[in-house]
Amino acid sequence: MKVLVTGSSGLVGSEAVEHFDRQGHEVLGVDNNMRRVFFGPAGDTLWNLERLKGATKRFTHADVDIRDRAAIEELIRTRRFDLIVHCAAQPSHDKARDIPLLDFEVNALGTVNLLEATRQHSPEAVVSQHQQGLWRRTE
Ligand SMILES: NC(=O)c1ccc[n+]([C@@H]2O[C@H](COP(=O)([O-])OP(=O)(O)OC[C@H]3O[C@@H](n4cnc5c(N)ncnc54)[C@H](O)[C@@H]3O)[C@@H](O)[C@H]2O)c1
User: Is CATH 3.30.750.24 correct for 27-138?
Assistant: First the structure.
C-alpha cells in the first residue's frame, strides 16, 4: 500500500510513519518543519526526521508545505496514494489565539487543499484526519 503521512516529523505523524513502515508499506512523509516557526528552536523537528530515516525501511520524505495547493495537487496526482494520514497542523489551541490567520491557513486551508487534491486525483484513497482532537475517516 502507498501511504502519505502529513506532519510526518511531528508527534502523531512520526508514530504513523513507523507503524505503516513496520507493516511493510511504502510511506511518504510530508513535513516542512513548520513546528519550528510556531514554537521556535525548541519546536524543531529535524531530529525526528533523522531518527525516522534510520528507524524505517521504506520511508521517504518531502519538504512540502500543505498550504501550497499546487505542490500538494502535484504530489497526489503523480503518486496516487491508497491511504492518507493527515497530521500536519498547528496543534496548540493557545497559540491559535495569537496567530489566527496562520492557524487557519495551516489547519483549515491546508486540509482543504489535501482533500480537494484527493477528490480530484485519488478518489479511492482513504483519508484519516487527525486534527484538533478528532479522528475523521473519509471514504
Ligand atoms: N499530540 C496529541 O496528543 C494529539 C491528540 C489529539 C489530536 N491531536 C492533533 O493531531 C494533530 C497533530 O498533532 P501533533 O501533536 O503530532 O503535532 P506536532 O506539532 O507534533 O506535529 C505537526 C507536524 O506538522 C508539521 N507542519 C505544520 N505545518 C505544516 C505545513 N504547513 N506543511 C507541512 N507540515 C506542517 C509540523 O512541522 C509538525 O512536524 C494536531 O491537529 C493535533 O491537534 C494531537
Answer: no
Angstrom distance (rounded) from CA 69 to CA 60: 21
Q: Where are the domains of the chain?
A: 27-138
**Cα–ligand 1 centroid distance for 129 (angstroms):** 11
For residue 6, give the nearest of 59, 68, 74, 65 by alpha carbon: 65
Looking at the chain, list the stretches that DSSP marks H as alpha helix, in order from N- to C-terminal side: 11-22, 34-39, 46-55, 69-79, 93-98, 100-104, 110-121
- Ligand 1, residues at Cβ distance < 6 Å: 7, 9-13, 30-35, 45, 65-67, 87-89, 91, 106, 110, 130-133
pTM of model > 0.90:
yes
> pLDDT tens for residues 88-108?
999 999 999 999 999 999 999
Pocket test for ligand 1, best of 6, 15, 31 (most atoms within 8 A of CB): 31
Q: What is the pLDDT of residue 137?
A: 52
Q: What percent of the chain has pLDDT over 90?
A: 91
Q: What contacts 123, CB < 8 A, 6 or more positions away?
A: none
